[in-house]
Amino acid sequence: MNTDTDVPFWLFLCRQAPYGSAWGSACLEFLMTAAAFDQRVVLAFAGDGVHYLQAGQDGDALALKDVSRALPALDLYEVKEVVAEAAALEARGIQENDLLIPVQPLDREAMADLMARAARVFVF
Amino acid sequence: MKFSLVIYGAPYASESAVTALHFARAVLAGGHVIHRLFFYQDGVHNASALVVPPQDELNVPEAWQALVREHELDAVVCVASALKRGILDAGEAERYDKPASNLLEGFSIGGLGQLVEAALVSDRVVSFAP
Asked: CB of B63 within 8 Å of any CB in chain A?
């Protein structure tokens, strides 16, 4: 995945874990709407947000639908650029084979660079 | 410059809604234009006609309403967020067979497409979250 092309993009940064709050769902809803308008979007997970990427989610006990089902659908919306804070994955012991979709791990500097290059940044 | 504001916080639960209100006033006083106010997630409560604050506190929804009226602003409340939180206009109340509607006059129910549009055409999009 190459985030270096000149096409302006909007960055959607999800920092909250799924199910505990609705922030991540709001992030995905807004991102998919933007993608439906043909806006190039990049989805980033940082901090507790990286838990969205973990396989084996089950929101039944909270009567919440499995929010992770939206992730494999991103491809259908032409959202192919998904990154995650490498340090956040590592700190939570989340490994590549635990992930629902492929992501590009970024170190802090690369994440900061990505934010600086975005035309818009929406933080959740 | 053309600004759009996104308000995520409910009034009173945090300072974010009033901070957004102050910022909106400052934007307009500075001679800029507000393209849209978009109330999302818990921010939809800023559009409730049923808010009753303590007598010595600001009525935040009415303060937004006054600003919207004075400057003819486009104040949009996200439909998905509003339905879940029980902020309904007359049409939605009827559609879902609810006993009442409570959307404060001056606000309109809309979708995320309007937030995308605002982000496409505005020079600045400023978000206010708790």
From this structure: no
Cα B119-B116-A110 angle, rounded to 5 deg: 65
- Mode of pairing for the β-strands spanning B33-39 and B75-78: parallel
d(CA B74, CA B3): 12
As a whole number of angstroms, the distance between CA A5 and CA A11 comes to 14
Report the predicted TM-score, pTM, of the whole model to 2 decimal places: 0.95
- Pick from A9, A21, A29 the residue to mutate for testing the B interface (most B CBs within 10 Å): A29
Residues B76 and B36: beta-carbon distance below 8 Å: yes
Give the phi and the psi of residue B8 in degrees, each rounded to 5: -100, -15
Contacts of residue B67, defined as CB under 8 A and 6 or more positions apart, other chains included, come to: B21, B24, B25, B28, B73
Name the interface residues of A facing B (CB cutoff 8 Å). Answer: 10, 22-23, 26, 29-30, 33-34, 37, 39, 120, 122-123
pLDDT digits 0-9 by tens, A94-124: 999 999 999 999 999 999 999 999 999 999 9
Q: Is the pLDDT of residue A1 over 60?
A: no
Q: Answer for the pair B75, B68: CB distance below 8 angstroms, yes or no.
A: yes
The Cα B121–Cα B4 span in angstroms is 9
Q: In the predicted model, is pLDDT for residue A59 greater than 90?
A: no
CA dihedral B113→B115→B116→B118, nearest 10 degrees, is 120
